[in-house]
Design goal:
about 40% helix, seven-stranded mixed beta sheet, globular, alpha/beta, Rossmann fold, 5 helices, 7 strands, single chain
Length: about 170
Amino acid sequence: MKQLIIVLELLSIVICLVACDERNISILNEVPTPVSVLDPDNEPNALSYVQLEAQLGPISRASRPYHIGVVLKFLGNQYWQFLAEGVQTRANELGVTVDIRAAETENDPEGQYAIMLEILDGGYDAFIIAPQTDTNLTSGVATARDRGLPVLVVDEVIKDAHYWVGVECH
């Protein structure tokens, strides 16, 4: 499980690098509760990319074939396409399989939720999600957490997620 978390964190680094440069990256272990008080600029659990790299050191290929389900907001947007390519590239380097899916439009939270429900039963070891809203995937995240499956949330904050990655852009 520890190696899976490291793989998730490495993939989150790719996500961060796409989003902005290393000085503005924040990776939080354990999303604070309540979510309304999240302040990435002042969060005590936040790690910069440089700190995370120093803490983890060099990462080798996965010791077993992890399968990670990825649900992005929308692949018709160049930003999310670039992010998906980065995640796929890094996953290939680590020997990890990722299944990247997304809603059909930028404003399809119900469609994105349907995808989340599908991947929950897909035999994945972990999930990376970028919800279209701060609530549309909440119950899916809770289900994954109840099953002991790590969830890394990108961009939006969801209270029950194991990890959150975002940027501190000022």
